[in-house]
Every structure is written in structure tokens, then in C-alpha cells.
Amino acid sequence: MAIEKGDIELAGVYKRFGDFTAVDGVNLRIPDGAYCCFLGPSGCGKTTILRMIAGHEDPTGGEILIGGQNVVGLPPVARRTAMMFQSYALFPHLSVRDNVAFALRVRGMSRADRYRVADAMLERVRITELANRLPGQLSGGQQQRVALARAAITEPKVLLLDEPLSALDEQLRIQMRTELRRMQRDLGITFVHVTHTQLEAIALADVVVVMEKGKIRQAARARDVYARPRDRYVAEFLGGQNVFRCRVESVNGRSVVVSGVDMSGIEVPVEAPGRIASGQNVDLAIRRDDIRLHRTPPSQGADWNSIGARIQAIEYQGAFVKVIMENVGDTEFVVYVPEREFFEEPFEVGESVVASWHAERALLLA
Length: 366
Prior knowledge:
Blueprint: E1 8-17, E2 20-30, E3 35-39, H1 46-54, E4 61-66, E5 69-70, H2 76-79, E6 81-84, H3 96-106, H4 111-124, H5 140-152, E7 158-162, H6 170-187, E8 190-195, H7 198-204, E9 207-212, E10 215-220, H8 222-227, H9 232-238, E11 241-252, E12 255-260, E13 263-269, E14 281-287, E15 292-294, E16 304-316, E17 320-328, E18 331-338, H10 339-344, E19 352-358, E20 362-365
Parallel strand pairs: 3-8, 3-9, 6-7, 7-8
Antiparallel strand pairs: 1-2, 1-4, 4-5, 9-10, 11-12, 11-14, 12-13, 14-20, 15-19, 16-17, 16-19, 17-18
Helix pairs in contact: 3-4, 3-5, 4-5
């Protein structure tokens, strides 16, 4: 049966290498035509999953379905997948055109036909003028476009990318993010991209899959993973959140009141208060850019929370200023202040301030 669509389903997939479990019972659905990023630290299992989808590794157990067909045991060509490697793996003695056309040559296509198809692909990735150069004559970004064209020329249903931007400098990474997203939309196929860089995943993906120790901690839209992390691990790994350990003091209708080290009487709205009981320990997350700093206690109404803090360090970040407070208990406390707002009345290291946020901006984590 030919694979007609690029939707992917992982059903109870696990992979063991001896006594080590690299992937531990993963269940996931990736829609056809989606851009999916697997995100996590080194050794979390994300590259192993990519290699199992590609057919370069077989799972120890579970099923991998592409277009509804179980592809476990099938070679990559039968899966309609293509892989773009971190090292690009270009043939140094072949021109750009011949690198891109190589897979068509292996399939027995005539020289004229494979060059025609290759030239069309080079135009799509905007490197037509490089067709006759050797890889050694290209920049890192140009080499990446060649590798992308070579992977896409076989018209796969799924394109797999193993940390494709890691070898590039920051400015080029930003440019290539835009190029990858444009190519994905132009080709209309499923992209599965492995990265350990949080901003890269958020910028590119329709679906972000956050992994730890072989398990999926959260799989959701990029904004949901960033703004509504499921648990403390996701919140801290994605960054941008302050996460405090607290104790529930009371449950009041659609909200709870929590207290912790250096904070008390903090109100947090909850969707299902019946699942929370007084005395329960919880994690409270507050986005760093949702916090306001004041020199005197503000009069903002009952739906605002505040705590006193002392500024420990200040770092200019361009679009915002990172204000690092003294820890709340043993937890890092950081505020992102918009750049223009900060420099209207700059704060100083050592200054005591009041940090406040609207109750609806806080989130209780699982």
C-alpha cells in the first residue's frame, strides 16, 4: 500500500539499548502537513524518535504509522520519508546540482530529466546561481539549503530534520528559520524537526513536543506550551516563567489562595477547584513579562497580587530589561521590563521594590 499522506502516529513506542530505555512508551499524533518540533535536552530521546520514524532504527516495541500504515520494518524509501542530517553530509566532489540530483540518479533517472528536476528545486530554495559550485565553496547557510533541496527532491511525505540550525551563527539561524518555514508551507508536507533550542521550536512549530528522559512531558501548540505549561519541568525548560512552590490555604469558588516562602495570600483562578484541597502543595507559575515593578505599593484592586523584593542584578536584553530579584525562598525570581518603560525611570541594583501581577496571569501547574 502506497503512503498517500504524511500524518504520523506513534503508538506505545519504546526503544531500549541494552539496559537503557531511550524512549519510554511514547504516544503522539502529528497531523499531515504540520511542522512539529521535538524539544528537549541531550539524551532525552528526541533524536532516537526521529531515527525510528525515518527507518534508521527499529523500535523495541510499539507502532509507527505514516498515512495510516504501520511502517515498522520498512526501509526509508518505502516510508516516503527523507532525512536532513545535522552535518548536511554533502558529497564534496560533486557540484551543488549533482548533490541535489543524486537520489534521482540512484533511481535511474536520465541525466537530462534529473537535472531538470534538480534545477527546479534549486530555484525553490533560491540557490540557482550556486548550481555549479562545490560544497567547499559554499557558506554554512548555502550548504544547508543544498541539503534541504537534496532531501526534498524525492517528494517525501515526511521530511525529518536533525538539529539543522545548530552549526549556524545566530543571525543566520534566524534567517534559516524563516526559510525552513517558507519551504514547509511551499512543499505542503510534514516536517519533523529535532532541536534543543527553545526559541527555535517556538518560532517554527505548529506542534511542540517537550521531552524528558524518554517521555513526552507536553505536546501542544507553541503558544500553549510557552504560556500554559503543563508542569514545572516544561515551565522551567521553556523559560520565561517564574515557578514557586506553594501551599493551598483555601479554596474559594473559582479561585484558590496560596502561600509560600516570602509570599502569602496569593490568589490564583483555577478551572477545576474541586481537584484542589486546602493543605495541598502546588507549583505556581507567573510569566516574567506579566510582572510589574513599583517603588511603592500600588493601589491596583483586589484582583492583583504583590510581593516585596530586592533587585540583585540588571541585564539589558534589547527589547526588554531582565531584572533579577533576590530569590523567593530557593527559587529564582526574574522580571522582564519593556525597554522603553524601564529607562523612563530606571531601577538600580540593591533597590527594594514591589512586584505585582494580575491574578488571572498566574497559573497552577500539575
